Amino acid sequence: MAADGSGGAPEVRKTTCYMCACRCGIDVHLRDGRVTLIEGNRDHPVNRGVLCGKGAAGLMQVTSPARLRAPLLRVGERGEGMFREISWDEALDIASGWLAPLRATSPEKFAFFTGRDQSQSFTGWWAQMFGTPNWAAHGGFCSVNMAAAGIMTVGSAFWEFGAPDWDNCGIFLLFGVAEDHDSNPIKLGLGRLKARGVRVVSVNPIRTGYSAVADDWLGITPGTDGLLVLALVHCLLEAGKIDLDFLARFTNGPHLVGPDGLILKNAESQPFVIDRRTGMPAPWDGPGVEPDLGAVHDGCRTVFAHLAERYLTPGHAPEAVAERCGIPASRIRALAAELARVAFDRPLVVEQPWVDFRGDRHDRMVGRPVAIHAMRGISAHANGFQTARALHLLQALLGAVETPGSWRMEAPYPKPMEAHPTPHAVAVPGRPLSGPHLGFVRGPDQLAVDAEGRALRIDKAFTWENPFSAHGLMHMVISNAHAGDPYRIDTLMLYMANMAWNSSMNSAEVMRMLTDRGEDGEYRIPHLIVADAYASETVAFADLVLPDTTYLERHDAISLLDRPISEPDAAADAIRWPVVEPGRDVRPFQSVLLDLGVRMGLPGMTQADGAAVFADYADYIQRHERRPGVGPLMGFRGTDGAAVGRGAPNPGQLAAYAANGGFFQAHVPADARYMKPWNRAYQDWAVEMSFFDSPQPFLIALWSDPLRRFQMAAEGTGWHQPPDHLRPQLRRAMDPLPVWYPAGDADEAFPLHALTQRPMAMYHSWGSQNAWLRQIHGHNTLFLPTAVWDAEGFAEGDLGRVTSASGSIVVPVAHMAALNPQTVWTWNAIGKRAGAWGLAPDAPEATRGFLLNTLIHELLPPRGDGYRWANSDPVTGQAAWFDLRVRVERVAPGTPAGPVGPAQAAVPAAGGGRA
Amino acid sequence: MTALPDRTERSLGLVIDLDTCVGCQACVTACKGWNDRDTGTGAGRLSDQDPYGADPSGTFLNRVHSYEILPEAGPAMVVNFPRSCLHCRDAPCVTVCPTGASHKRAGDGIVLVSEDACIGCGLCAWACPYGARELDAAHGVMKKCTLCEDRIDNPALAEEDRIPACVRTCPTGARHFGDLADPGSAVSRLVADRGGIDLMPDLGTRPVNKYLPPRAKDRPMEAAPLAPLLDVQATGIAGWLDRLLGRL
């Protein structure tokens, strides 16, 4: 009998799921070359055998009727969805015919942006070889606030590069959170907390999912998380319940702030501290040095004194913020007391000696078992960056960063901002870009602007409008390209990004921009290439469609070079490999990129005689070296396959991964498991593993010099000066200490906050083509709090008109009591354009489903100052989806729900699917 | 019309922890996947109708619902509630069956439908107060949770996998499987410890499956309120720092 319980020949192939961003290990059961069952891989570090609702339904994704079946060339008007099928040779000739002349003359006229890309180190490298500065993935509209604030503060970030210490924490504090990301690790962790009886506190305007099982629910008003966090900071400081030893040793709290607001440096341009043993200046990293948090030197006080002064003011007291947060002051004070009790009355001591970066030996690791996790809920606001900074400050005050029981980092992190590249954006015809596209500026001199201050990138990343846009701003590409601001482009290539629908603010306007023609009669964005596996809304707008394979039909590397699957106790990476044949005229997009690169003679992928360096993407995964001995995969390196981290390419590497369950793990040594940023044993191991080439210890940046440099520029200091109209926002947002300011513009006409969240059983727009998942979420309703429901006299089955400053739609509504009283919400990306995704035009997703995107503009409503301000975080450019304000009115029964757009023609696709 | 066994040797069933279930639907699709898998024998399968159309529907043996609860004091709560056959000791779906297709196994107490004897009359679904049976529109026979009887005794599966698919996949560990007739079993102890309850006990169906009720939410924190170090407004930051750093 087979493992699926059938009488057939047993066959299970182990690969990696792609039904969301979680990347669980899956056992794919096959009969006669067809997939019959998908289960979780019990040996896999991410999911330990479990799967979510999406994972098992992957079975319906590989047979979706929306699968593209051959390259397509547009024959009708753009957006109609009228295509003819063409050969791959013709498709690649057309693509290289558009791109090669651009590379030779003006590489920036080619823009390449990727959505659900899990091969960003590859696509970025490819774009760098092409020479365009215009590449990024989707982080700018996802969670760059969390990533940038985390890396700039604690050298890591929530979500993919950090995890609660599930087994040891004594309380778990959860902010926001998209329930589809890191989903099974969080669910596994919550289950462990429940089994141990650990208190789970959720801060979230909506009580569903994880918040539903939380012991305490703080139904916060959206955008005020930073106020709440700084009030907790106030309470802890007021009571002196902070970890002084941790702050003195492992943060820049004892550094001195100079008269200009920058951290004082010595003659070697190094920050220094006052040593408590001598009262004299001493190197910040000197052996035996005991930094003094309360020192005063030449009239300069410590970072710690500055922050205490700020947050001890009455304006940060719970009583001062309670009303704005929608949380009683007594609950805030009670939570602060509970955090202090768990951290300081119940320290978690691991009897493990270790040596810190100063060379000081410690007999044990002392933990503060307060675990905090946060994600998009705090991130997608215009104050999200500083809110994430505030959360990391709270963690640091408690000594709850990388200490036992608290919040732990995952390889290749910790990695401080200083170890990240600066952005590179100068295009030179016929040449590769001089370095990686994305990174962190250290000051105004590193912005991606020309001598006149014009943006070098089409998305205006790394400009005065958003200096720390470390993930680019994919959501601005189409509107900027349409406007020719900062310049016109010729070809836009989108990979797995539904920018004509749920991944854009203002979807209807984006669709218009894609079809708009200039005075010359040509489309304003002349060429649009879309690579995707499925007939999405965006595919209908392509001039050329490059059909991709599904996740069970191709190779992928889940790499330590970008977003691996590490856990706190093990570095880990993984692969996908073709466990079934596509049976359609489709190709893995990464291999197509390599082919396209060879046709254009791109360096790194083309030999001197014009032949390809790599046969395909699988060959690239095994043989590409980013640095000598360091490639996309860490495991089974070297000619004998025994090397880890560093080693020669191994032609048997992918086979070894497949045989190992599709992944590889390198376990962190026992003395390196905690205190990683400061722990010599970890730093040495990280170098051995290739995460960096020399140890990179660092201090938690409670005070941020890079932010202060921009604030100083806004105050008028320095050669590089911002435009005058940006000075006020830079002065406010570039505060070197965490700060709260209101997110978005309040307007009495729109008194309610409107949020979306993604159901745990549906990922972006991709789930609706799934015969099983669409039976769970086939349409969406707008949930209204009791006060709004009663005030408008709503009844079950009613419709509501929901209006923002930029639009109005009529939608089905429902009552929900477990909701912040000023908040309405709906499920994200359920609404579909009629005709898309292989669904019938009268599918409920198209007739009753809706998107709130329609009501969100990428610009804020005019303020009357002559400027249009971006609806984004001024530090990172993160799209401020959750700053949406609306009003909701009851409309007469029978009024039809607003259509989500005109129907598109059915794109030629595989058909078939679930019988 | 169909007799129930006088007693069963074991009472296999599920214990579902409503304090832990986040409503993720993992059990729903894992159940669908296992019970719909193509075994090459033509047996089993759970059909779907109009899967890409205006009114998609299909057969699921397990569904998850979410309900709001308004406590007398404190914020509203949400409870996620997985619903499947409870394998009742006094199963009305068995006694109502005219053909003997619906039956309860004497050995382990699992309630099953013999599809070759089922005439699709629907009486059992009508008799079940829990809505835990679904008439498959394509196959014309009644479908229901089998506790994955083709897993739990399947020698081809690893020992650790001889559990229902929903239990194997549950990411939060909210679903437990075992013998509820054995007071020493892990599931029985869990029921005892956590005050497990029957669903709608007044109906007299005596379900084998148990639900663990949600724990009380939004209780007072354990810690005493924090006391300020001193009056910082009076002493200023310098005084506060001195006190904090032990220099007073």
Overall description:
The complex is a heterodimer of chains A (915) and B (248). Chain A has 25 helices and 33 strands. Chain A is an alpha/beta fold and 915 residues long. The model of chain A has no long low-confidence stretch (mean pLDDT 95). Chain B is an alpha+beta fold and 248 residues long. Chain B is 21% helix and 18% strand. Chain B contains seven helices and eleven strands. The N and C termini of chain B lie far apart (87 Å). Classes of the chains: A alpha/beta (915), B alpha+beta (248). Chains A and B meet through β3, α1, α6, α7 and α8 of A and α1, β3, β5, α5 and α7 of B.
Shape of chain A: globular
- From the spread of the alpha carbons, the general shape of chain B counts as elongated
What is the makeup of the main sheet of chain A?
Answer: 7 strands, mixed
Tally of DSSP β-strands of chain A: 33
Give the DSSP E fraction of chain A (strand runs of 2 or more residues): 15-25%
Distance between the termini of chain B: 87 Å
Which structural class do the helices and strands of chain A define? alpha/beta
Q: What is the average per-residue confidence, as pLDDT of chain A, rounded to a whole number?
A: 95
Structural class of chain B: alpha+beta
Work out the helix count of chain B.
7
Helix run count of chain A: 25
The total beta strand count of chain B reads 11
What proportion strand of chain B? 15-25%
Oligomeric description of these chains? heterodimer
* Major β-sheet strand ordering of chain A: 5-4-24-23-22-6-7
Helix percent of chain A reads 10-25%
Rg value of chain B: 25 Å
